[in-house]
Amino acid sequence: MMKRIAFLGTSVYRETDGHVITRINRKPKHSDQYLVYDSHHTQLVKRGVVKRLHDWARRLLTKQSVIVGEKEQLSSVLVSNIYPPILYRRSS
What is the pTM of this model? Predict the structure, then answer.
């Protein structure tokens, strides 16, 4: 059984072999709503949303399989917020 602790936006787990794994910690009521692409913000701000989400996953997660899963989740979230695929595929 893995034990988990929430710490600074992540969930930290210790596997049975002693390795520590981090995952993004989302509260149960998290809605995956971010700045919608067709809002009246500049392209710089919209690109910043995508970059920030990908950087967050890249810097906080420790296991490659968790990183891949998180990037798939982010792609899904960005699609639901009407971001064009070229923006989030380039950041991957």
Answer: 0.75
